[in-house]
Amino acid sequence: MLFSNTSKYDINIEINDTKIKRVTQDKFLGVLIDEKLTWAAHKVAIAKKVSSYCGVLFRARHILNLPSLKTLYYSFIQSH
Predict the structure, then answer these.
(1) More confident of the two residues 35 and 68
(2) Within its chain, how far is the Cα of 49 from the centroid?
(3) What is the DSSP string of 5-74?
(4) Roughly what angle, to the nearest 10 degrees, separates helices 40-60 and 66-73?
(5) pTM across the whole model
(6) Are residues 2 and 35 in contact, defined by beta-carbon separation less than 8 angstroms?
(7) Mean predicted confidence (pLDDT) in 8-37
């Protein structure tokens, strides 16, 4: 990954005659980093994950009591 605010660079890197694949984003320590160092991809991934967990809470609201729902919220959503 090359960090730059423009994408005009086209650099090929090889180590021991093996071409290194260039990526535009990658996950490092649980954070999605892109080549422009913006948070856009990470925000989309977190929103998708939280939305999924909200659906779980929504479906469980009639089955579980409030303390159990709070436990699910703290473990699924607040940690993100």
Answers:
(1) 68
(2) 8
(3) SS-------EETTEEPPP-SEEEETTEEEETT--SHHHHHHHHHHHHHHHHHHHHHTTTS-HHHHHHHHI
(4) 160
(5) 0.64
(6) yes
(7) 84
